């Protein structure tokens, strides 16, 4: 089999020397030897994300937004900054069209190709991954907290679909943003595909210190993206037709890898964000020395890769966080454990010997702890899961530096 490491970005996983999303790594995972057949997998029947577990059906809309106040930071000649945003939300059962698409085929092809996965059948399989959200569904009655999601550097927003659907099924509106020129591919509504100019900028830096500075700028730039997105979702004349479903007084943000750093960057500059989560993201843009105004923050990462002393930006960030906080690490996990990658990889017959945690456990842990955090932080609900280790989640370690 291929190793699941082929689907991850070593740059994002190696905080001290991060340079760009995986150009070579996949490269650490070669195809099975000639003549060795992959084991049978679900790919023959089509890929599917696990169904969400909440009580709501889920809908999905897509927004294409333009921030005329800012030029694109990576390709200024492209004009103003643009964002593609998926909105998952609690929906009325039985409304809407068919299942929302997972990812455009060309985005899937570019993501796989960058990781050395060039089976010609796979882009179509990944693009056709079945989701649980219906397009153009009617929203469920009520107003719901808003959660912003940001993907890893070089990674399409689609890879956080499973988490977005889970949160929507639990009663959250979820806005997941693609940041153009920061992903292997972002397909615009007119069919053009923007590739990762920011990756090229990182690659061009002469040393690790210079690369870290660029990655810090990525995080800070995403903070500006999300402040603009909040304006367009919760301000006057909102861009989303169902904006009344959002409760603007309850806003959280989570992200994977650099997207997790963007959660703290956004909170530092925008008081509207009440709580944040990083999922295995190095703080290239450090947590503000003054803290985050007492707002809660969850650090959820790999073990031992993000245990105390492993990524010093987490030790420093922990000391600066001045509100309710938790530092959790997950045994046998990998950098992409907290995304859809384990589910899709396992169905394609891909494994990562360095991250043996199963797809089912990866999904269950991510969903449970992220949801518990937002339930506590945005809804004031008890979250016993966050009080300490539990027998049902032996992989999850509570770090107390």
UniProtKB/TrEMBL annotation:
Entry keywords, A to Z: Hydrolase, Lipid degradation, Lipid metabolism, Signal
Molecular-function GO terms, alphabetical: 1-alkyl-2-acetylglycerophosphocholine esterase activity
The keyword Hydrolase appears for this protein: yes
InterPro entries linked: AB_hydrolase_fold
Protein's name according to its UniProt entry: Lipase
Record's signal peptide: 1-24
Single GO biological process annotation from the record: lipid catabolic process
Pfam families: PAF-AH_p_II
Comp. bias intervals (Low complexity): 33-47
Keyword Flavoprotein: no
Chain positions covered by the region annotation Disordered: 33-56, 382-401
